[in-house]
Design brief:
This protein is an alpha+beta fold. It is built from 6 helices and 10 strands. The protein has a domain at 107-272.
Length: 273
């Protein structure tokens, strides 16, 4: 066997020498083919090696998750939360607008102040647009003096003064008055007046009878230098029974107080509208 292989090798060498001298171009082609074949074999085994190496590396290391998905999800959640927040704000605006534009279905009392001096303010009282009584209050003061200053203009709720225990001396006084005891239960209070408490609509004749409250009457005493009102009990009885019936029937009652310059402000608003 060895002899055969040696003879084959010698024959191949002799054949190569003969081809080299007789046709050297053919030998070049054969040589190039052998080199190319060897390169293909080497490339084939290299690819197999790389694939096996990659497979072992994947098994040894966990796959890394790119953070792009997480970042994208967080961005979408943040955007959704922002849209939800904007929607809530828009709903709140709509609710506030609807609340402000909702017509008042109860009874409105208007108090129109028309003059004041250093002690007293006089006005006119209307219930549902109908003149009901004259009013007297303390005077206007830029800085409040307790018991000597009228309440600010504005819109306020009217309701009964809740019972205290025991009832206040003024409540006891009204309940025991012969003209009032058949119907009087609680004082009519102007509610939620900023920086003022216990503002009632009640009986009186001059600024000495009020501590910021609203007095009502059927007439004005014009002969005195000091402003006074007359027939207060009569006007109060009529007014109280009317408002008492409304409140006991479950109707809402409010008072709109206008200062002396209300007409001027109305004209300005009309010009601007």
């Amino acid at each position: 066997m060895k002899r055969f292989f040696a003879l084959f090798l010698i024959a191949a060498i002799i054949l190569a020498i003969v081809i080299f001298f007789t046709n050297p171009q053919l030998l070049d082609k054969v040589w190039l083919w052998l080199i190319g074949f060897a390169g293909s074999i080497i490339g084939f085994f290299r690819n197999i090696f790389d694939q096996l190496k990659g497979a072992f590396e994947k098994e040894g290391k966990p796959e890394s998750v790119t953070p792009t998905t997480s970042i994208s999800a967080k961005s979408e959640i943040s955007e959704a939360e922002q849209k939800l927040d904007d929607l809530k704000k828009e709903i709140e605006k709509k609710e506030e607008l609807l609340k402000n534009n909702t017509p008042f279905l109860g009874t409105t009392i208007h108090l129109i102040r028309y003059t004041y001096d250093e002690n007293t303010t006089l006005g006119l009282l209307y219930v549902r647009g109908k003149f009901t009584a004259y009013t007297l209050e303390d005077t206007y003061r830029e800085k409040k003096i307790k018991g000597k200053t009228r309440i600010p203009s504005g819109t306020y709720k009217i309701g009964f003064r809740e019972d205290s225990s025991p009832p206040s001396p003024l409540t006891e006084k009204y309940r025991n008055r012969s003209e009032l005891k058949d119907f009087f239960t609680h004082h009519l209070e102007v509610k939620d007046v900023e920086n003022f408490n216990f503002i009632y609509i009640h009986i009186g004749n001059d600024h000495g009878d009020t501590d910021g409250c609203i007095l009502i009457a059927d007439g004005i005493y014009a002969l005195s230098l000091e402003k006074k009102i007359l027939s207060s009990v009569k006007a109060y009885t009529r007014f109280y029974k009317h408002i008492q019936a409304l409140l006991q029937g479950g109707e809402e009652v409010r008072i709109v107080i206008l200062d002396e310059d209300w007409l001027e402000k109305l004209e300005i608003n009309n010009l601007n509208s």
